[in-house]
């Protein structure tokens, strides 16, 4: 087999790549500034490669991907021409995955990395006599920022998260900034979005701030407004969709320590959009999270917070339908 270099020509969906000796580590922040993403690189979530994939064109009938040993089980998806071919589970401390029965015609191959645990890549191999070409993704780049509900730990597999499903439906180049527990609207994340070339931005607000009781009625809107203002410093005409939380069970009517219910936070998120539009921003839009996943879908929340695999598939389809008017 012949080795293919692992670099940004074929690794898509990462913000940066760290070269660590023989390994390449995808990050969903700029790793050179990682110390500024407190605490601990967003509590380790920036290292988890949700939405990151290796993409190339080849007629190879086999592939092998070497990885660093992990103390945790890792899951990968192989897609052929944007359709799921196989999910491969790599046991803890194992160092490779492979598939030896691929169709031998020229095709686009995507290897989606785990959305649950960090992955360090060592080497990619294809058949010795196979053709190879990096996938030049010219589709519109979409960046989505959110919580664990955007990282999608409980999705059936890495390519079946709601952002991946939405990206497939709308033919978008996905960059997923779903950080479990860490969607707190920090200025460093706003700066990163501002400084990244992108065609369409989606931001989700409220569930992490509700659960962590981060902001109160005095501070919540101000933080969200400031976050968007930072993004608008460079992305002046890029469509931004701000969505509120999906259905949150008891949180809808139960006040947290700072006096917020999730329903109240949803109202404040919508008011943020009204403020921007009143002041001349006609490229910012609101989606009510209940229109994506409402009370009628509560049976798909096994822990009364996170959707299960079926719930994420539903969200993927509903977000695709909701985003269509804003992607032009």
What would you note in describing this structure?
This protein is α+β, with helices and mostly antiparallel strands. It folds into two domains: 133 residues, Galactose-binding domain-like (Jelly Rolls, Sandwich), CATH 2.60.120; 186 residues, SGNH hydrolase (Rossmann fold). It is built from nine helices and 17 strands. Strands 2, 5, 7, 8, 10 and 12 form a six-stranded antiparallel beta sheet that branches. The longest helix is centred in the C-terminal third of the chain and has 17 residues. The radius of gyration is 20 Å and the shape is globular. 44% of the residues are buried. The model has no long low-confidence stretch (mean pLDDT 97). InterPro entries: SGNH_hydro (IPR013830), SGNH_hydro_sf (IPR036514), SsfX3-like_N (IPR048977). It comes from Neobacillus bataviensis LMG 21833.
């Amino acid at each position: 087999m012949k080795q293919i270099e692992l670099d940004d020509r074929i690794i898509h969906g990462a913000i940066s790549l760290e070269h660590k000796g023989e390994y390449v580590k995808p990050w969903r922040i700029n790793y050179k500034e990682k110390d500024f993403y407190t605490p601990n690189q967003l509590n380790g979530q920036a290292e988890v490669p949700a939405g990151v994939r290796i993409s190339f064109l080849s007629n190879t009938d086999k592939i092998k991907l070497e990885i660093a040993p992990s103390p945790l089980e890792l899951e990968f998806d192989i897609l052929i021409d944007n359709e799921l071919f196989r999910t491969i589970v790599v046991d803890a401390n194992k160092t490779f995955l492979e598939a030896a029965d691929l169709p031998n015609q020229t095709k686009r191959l995507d290897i989606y990395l785990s959305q649950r645990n960090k992955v360090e890549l060592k080497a990619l191999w294809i058949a010795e006599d196979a053709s190879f070409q990096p996938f030049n993704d010219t589709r519109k780049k979409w960046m989505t920022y959110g919580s664990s509900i955007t990282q999608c730990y409980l999705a059936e597999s890495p390519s079946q998260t709601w952002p991946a499903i939405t990206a497939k439906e709308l033919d978008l180049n996905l960059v997923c900034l779903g950080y479990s527990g860490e969607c707190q609207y920090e200025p460093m994340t706003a700066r990163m979005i501002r400084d990244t070339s992108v065609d369409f931005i989606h931001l989700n607000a409220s569930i992490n701030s509700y659960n962590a009781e981060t902001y109160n009625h005095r501070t919540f809107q101000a933080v969200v407004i400031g976050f968007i203002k930072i993004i608008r410093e460079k992305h002046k005409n890029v469509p931004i969709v701000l969505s509120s939380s999906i259905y949150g069970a008891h949180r809808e009517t139960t006040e947290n320590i700072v006096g917020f219910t999730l329903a109240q936070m949803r109202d404040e998120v919508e008011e943020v959009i009204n403020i921007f539009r009143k002041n001349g921003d006609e490229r910012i839009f609101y989606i009510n999270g209940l229109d994506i996943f409402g009370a009628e879908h509560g049976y798909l929340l096994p822990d009364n917070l996170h959707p299960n695999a079926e719930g994420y598939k539903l969200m993927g389809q509903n977000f695709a339908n909701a985003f269509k008017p804003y992607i032009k």
